[in-house]
């Protein structure tokens, strides 16, 4: 990283899905800024936490959690606040972009998709807001996706949830701005995480997508760190209710 965000040092940061993919890069980035980080994900992250401790000299807090279990998610957030102080930065990052055909979606699959990609975001926001208000303000960053902006096919449930994340972000920003809470969304383009490379990034698809980008280089998880830090820090103190695309120039907003 080339940028230092001094106000993030010592901040209590809570991330969902913070031990793999983009989330792992974000945990790394916040720790590098001196933040106190607590994250949740379904799978064990002990090895990752140990690696972060070796790198930064501080171990992130971690608890196993299925974010669709709202009661468990709230318990983990309460634990994070008890260990690190009131949460002043929330990053909703956990998501599942499993490919699916619209005509094969049943009600259970649809509900599960929305629970992971949308419901968990709202209830994490709802639970953290009173503490942020009491602390005099805070920053929420909801990870969306350019998939819905592009009208991408093959994962209608995921794309629908991400469109709703942007709408939710704008509504919460309007409601809680007077209490000093900023709520923004960040929409990554196609970021080549290990999961993407293993499951969907075949040579032809990657080549076709890179041609759509203004900037020709493939996006990596590290490319999302500083944009998220910007939205979490006072550097973006005049921004709220926005959805910022970080996709190497595929979509255009404004």
From TrEMBL:
Keywords: Oxidoreductase. It holds the Pfam family adh_short_C2. The keyword Nucleotidyltransferase does not apply. GO terms for molecular function: oxidoreductase activity. Residues 11-203 form the Ketoreductase domain. It comes from the Bacteria. Belongs to the short-chain dehydrogenases/reductases (SDR) family. This is SDR family oxidoreductase. It comes from Meridianimarinicoccus marinus.
């Amino acid at each position: 990283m080339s940028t230092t965000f001094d106000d993030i040092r010592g901040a209590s940061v809570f991330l969902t899905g913070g031990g793999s993919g983009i989330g792992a890069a974000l945990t790394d980035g916040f720790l590098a800024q001196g933040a106190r980080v607590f994250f949740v994900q379904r799978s064990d992250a002990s090895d990752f936490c140990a690696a972060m401790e070796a790198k930064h000299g501080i171990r992130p807090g971690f608890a196993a959690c299925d974010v669709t279990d709202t009661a468990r998610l709230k318990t983990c957030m309460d634990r994070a606040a008890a260990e690190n102080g009131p949460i002043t930065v929330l990053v909703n990052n956990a998501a599942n972009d499993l490919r699916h055909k619209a005509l094969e979606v049943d009600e259970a699959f649809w509900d599960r998709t929305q629970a992971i990609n949308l419901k968990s975001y709202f209830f994490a926001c709802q639970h953290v807001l009173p503490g942020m208000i009491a602390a005099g303000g805070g920053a929420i960053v909801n990870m969306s996706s350019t998939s819905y902006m592009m009208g991408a096919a093959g994962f209608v449930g995921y794309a629908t949830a991400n469109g709703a994340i942007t709408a939710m972000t704008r509504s919460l920003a309007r409601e809680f701005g007077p209490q000093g809470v900023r709520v923004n969304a960040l929409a990554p383009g196609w970021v080549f995480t290990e999961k993407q490379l293993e499951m969907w990034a075949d040579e032809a698809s990657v080549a076709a997508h890179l041609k759509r980008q203004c900037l020709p280089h493939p996006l990596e998880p590290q490319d999302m760190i500083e944009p998220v830090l910007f939205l979490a820090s006072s550097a973006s103190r005049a921004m709220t209710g926005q959805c910022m695309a970080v996709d190497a120039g595929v979509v255009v907003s404004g």
